[in-house]
Design goal:
Layout: H1 2-29, E1 33-35, E2 50-51, H2 54-65, E3 78-82, E4 91-92, E5 95-97, E6 105-110, E7 113-119, E8 128-135, H3 136-140, H4 147-156, E9 160-168, H5 177-187, H6 196-212, E10 213-217
Length: 218
């Protein structure tokens, strides 16, 4: 009789553990991350931050997303997430320290504009990695979304969209000057909530950072 009860208790405990593990596993795997059309960090040749270990990056990012409360941010659904140190080994930094040698730079076309970039071999050591991730609903409500992109996002069942990968050599890098201006001009919902003091502080941070660092390119 005692043996039967013991077996029943063991079976119940194993069942509960298995159910809990399966539930957690399902919750994580239900998150399907899409990559925004504007994000080029996963391309073999790109400008700025570059993901080297793509599979590891996305797998670990999936785990991080499972812990995020997307309703806790200034604009619900738009999350800026500082990632653990392990992500530093998955990426190449998006910037390097400026030099005074013209030979250290290359000319590239980015978003239909010609720009001057530091060669990737001068990319700084990665010391921090952050991402910008939107829920599907927040991404579809973004002012920059186009009908064609909205169609394939819905058809593929994405739950979240990866918008930016920011691999920095020091403190998290601010927006680029062009992106900052674009957001102020109505390209981002969160920017609509910035106060005049916040705008001035962000502008100073961007100016100071841009004077020391330059975006790198392949």
């Amino acid at each position: 009789m005692r043996y039967t009860v013991y077996r029943a208790v063991c079976f119940l405990l194993v069942s509960l553990f298995t159910w809990e593990f399966y539930s957690i596993h399902v919750d994580i795997k239900m998150n399907i991350i899409g990559i925004s059309d504007i994000l080029t960090a996963f391309n073999d040749l790109t400008i700025g931050s570059k993901v080297i270990s793509k599979k590891r990056f996305l797998n670990d990012l999936n785990d991080e997303i499972a812990e995020i409360d997307f309703n806790s941010f200034n604009v619900p659904g738009q999350a800026y997430v500082q990632l653990p140190d392990q992500f530093c080994s998955y990426v190449s930094a998006g910037v390097g320290r400026r030099t005074t040698s013209p030979d250290d730079y290359v000319v590239r076309v980015h978003r239909e504009k010609i720009g001057l970039y530091l060669k990737r071999k001068f990319a700084a050591e990665v010391r921090s990695v952050a991402v910008v991730v939107y829920t599907r609903e927040a991404y579809l409500n973004d002012p920059d979304i186009i009908e064609k992109e909205a169609g394939w996002i819905n058809s593929r069942g994405y739950t979240h969209m990866l918008v930016a990968v920011l691999a920095s050599s020091g403190p998290p890098s601010p927006l680029t000057p062009n992106r900052f201006i674009h957001n102020l001009a109505g390209g981002n919902n969160e920017a609509l909530q910035w106060t005049a003091d916040e705008i001035r502080a962000k502008a100073k941070e961007i100016a100071d950072y841009s004077s020391e660092f330059c975006i790198v390119a392949d």
